[in-house]
Design goal:
The complex is a heterodimer of chains A (287) and B (266). In chain A, the strands form two sheets. In chain A, strands 6-7-8-3-9-10 form a six-stranded mixed β-sheet, sandwiched between helices. A four-stranded antiparallel β-sheet of chain A has the order 2-1-4-5. Chain A contains nine helices and ten strands. Chain A has 287 residues and is an alpha/beta fold. By secondary structure, chain B is mainly α. Chain B folds into two domains: 3-46; 59-265, MetI-like fold (Orthogonal Bundle), CATH 1.10.3720. In chain B, 85% of the residues lie in helices and 0% in strands. The chains are: A alpha/beta (287), B mainly alpha (266). At the A-B interface, strand 6 and helix 4 of A face helix 7 and helix 8 of B.
Chain lengths: 287, 266
């Protein structure tokens, strides 16, 4: 079983790791090259009614340019907080997050695309307007924004619902609009918070495939929070395994290309290894 | 016509009858009860016309009134004062509320003023407005604006503060700066609450107009009623009161219709 010591070790470990074939291009970019995201000794807590809840405890890891890092861990362990910090939607209580070697500041940017756990669609806008508004905000003409929005709504299979209002959509459909909205921005940094959680199993697999293809086109740096380990193996170049709250990085597991084949023994091993890190044994009789 | 089609037609006629029953007949029941009590009171106590005329007399008075030019002039004056004051009050109120909802500094600076002024009811200002503006329209417009302003400011500030934080995060993520976030995300998200406050404010504003006209005006429904009262034309007084009620309900319905039309209009 792979259990790394806490604190800064995962980062070092990661850097020292023999470069996995699937991530060659990404890894050669290095940590401080364009499009790299690093989380350096970040701790965070929330205050509510005078009580302090620690969510993140000295978290460090880095994601190279164009790399996909999947964050897995027990629910409520602070994965969403991690995304919020990377997005500059909040400031860490300690430590820092950098993008392109520069500290991430609070406020709007134009390199970011993010899909939230709650899709957060604007209820007074049609589906198309919801996707297009980010593009017009970032300076695209109305006409271009509309065209790009339609294109991405086709990708997530919602072309028939372009003129619908969010209240007319199911939870899974709304989540797909949220994904389309993030992808349409063609962001350099893509943050996804359990984007396929409300989608049925079949659509989920289909979306994963299409998502993978889309990533190949623009090669953004991706931080992908999920609690679905097979999904993490299917999409991630590395899997960042988090512990219970206050969450620390337990270990970082690289994923090689051959380990993504669900019919292979390598996949079974990877699944068992990752689940073991999360404290789940693969031997069901063992309990 | 085939039997099936005939049956369908019969059903649709029945459904229509049902809808008419619910939407027209039931509300009429309440009106009939009130009129019956009114008529009975007049009959039992043998009330003279100058104390309380029976419904039918008031109805004919109202019909006569509607035929006169002076009546429409009074309605026009009251409505003008209301609409002008309401427009000023809601615009300024929503703007102030938005600023208070967006900026903590603004909120901290304005809250004491707003909180102390909003409990001075508009009617308390009537003597001062007469002193300052006489019986002109300006005094009434100011009074309506004042009455509406505080309702709109407080409701808007609260609605903005309660906008789903996810929407704010989404706006920021999309690259919106604070001003754009306020106008494109927070304001539309708060619109349903603001619209219902606007309806409540309309009622308050309309009441303020009429009340101000009762006390000092050169024209308007309030003046029409006080004049009628001083010449003991009780029928006109009651007819005027009914007109005030009907216009108030009409204004409220109009604002509701505007608010409902908005979301799909874009």
């Amino acid at each position: 079983m792979t259990t790394a010591t806490r604190h800064a070790t995962p980062t070092n470990r990661h850097a020292a790791m023999p470069t996995p074939t699937a991530t060659d291009a990404a890894m050669t970019g290095g940590r401080d090259a364009r499009g790299g995201l690093t989380v350096e000794r970040v701790s965070h807590h929330y205050l509510a009614n005078g009580r302090r809840t620690d969510v993140l405890d000295d978290v460090s890891f880095s994601v190279g340019a164009g790399q996909v890092a999947c964050v897995v861990g027990p629910s409520g362990c602070g994965k969403s907080t991690l995304l919020g910090l990377a997005a500059g939607l909040m400031r860490p209580a300690a430590g820092r997050v950098t993008w392109n070697g520069e500290t991430v500041r609070m406020g709007p940017t134009d390199h970011l695309g993010m899909a939230f756990q709650q899709p957060g669609l604007f209820p007074w806008m049609t589906v198309r307007e919801n996707v297009a508004i980010g593009l017009t905000t970032r300076g695209k003409s109305r006409h271009d924004a509309r065209r790009i929005a339609d294109e991405f709504l086709d990708t997530v299979g919602l072309h028939e619902f372009k003129d619908a209002y969010p209240s007319q959509l199911s939870g899974g459909m709304a989540q797909r609009v949220g994904i389309a909205r993030a992808l349409a921005l063609k962001p350099r940094l893509l943050l996804l918070d359990e984007p396929f959680a409300a989608v049925d199993a079949f659509t989920r697999l289909k979306l994963q495939q299409e998502f993978k293809a889309l990533l190949k086109l623009d090669r953004p740096t991706v931080l992908f929070v999920t609690h679905d380990v097979p999904e993490a193996i299917a999409l991630g170049d590395v899997i960042v395994v988090m512990s219970q709250r206050p969450a620390a990085v337990k270990t970082i597991i690289p994923v090689r290309r051959e380990e993504r084949d669900r019919a292979s023994l390598a996949y079974a091993h990877k699944l068992a290894e990752t689940l073991a890190c999360l404290g789940v044994t693969s031997d069901m009789e063992g309990e | 016509m085939s039997p099936a089609a005939r049956r369908e037609q019969a059903i649709s006629v029945m459904a229509l009858g049902h809808a008419v029953g619910r939407r027209v007949l039931l509300p009429l029941v309440g009106v009939v009860i009130v009129l019956a009590i009114w008529q009975a009171t007049v009959a039992i106590y043998r009330l003279p016309l100058i104390v309380l005329p029976p419904p039918w007399t008031v109805a004919t008075t109202l019909a006569d009134l509607v035929g006169t030019r002076a009546f429409w002039r009074d309605v026009g004056v009251s409505l003008y004062e209301f609409v002008a004051g309401y427009a000023i009050g809601t615009t300024l109120g929503v703007a102030t509320g938005l600023a208070m909802g967006e900026s903590r500094r603004f909120r901290q600076a304005l809250t004491p003023v707003i909180e102390s002024l909003r409990f001075i009811v508009p009617f308390a200002w009537i003597p001062l407005t007469i002193l300052w503006f006489g019986t002109s329209y300006a005094g009434k417009i100011m009074l309506v604006a004042y009455a509406v302003y505080f309702v709109m400011t407080v409701s808007t500030a609260r609605a903005i503060a309660h906008v789903d934080p996810t929407l704010t995060r989404v706006g920021t993520m999309l690259g919106m700066r604070p001003l754009r976030l306020a106008l494109r995300v927070h304001l539309p998200a708060a619109m349903p609450t603001i619209a219902s406050a606007a309806r409540a404010a309309a009622a308050i504003g309309w009441i303020a107009v009429v009340a101000a006209e009762y006390i000092g005006a050169s024209a308007g429904l309030g003046l029409m009623i006080t004049n009628a009262a001083s010449s003991l034309a009780t029928g006109v007084v009651i007819a005027g009161m009914i007109v005030i009620g009907l216009i108030g309900a009409g204004v409220s319905a109009a604002i509701l219709a505007i608010a409902r039309a908005r979301p799909s209009a874009r």
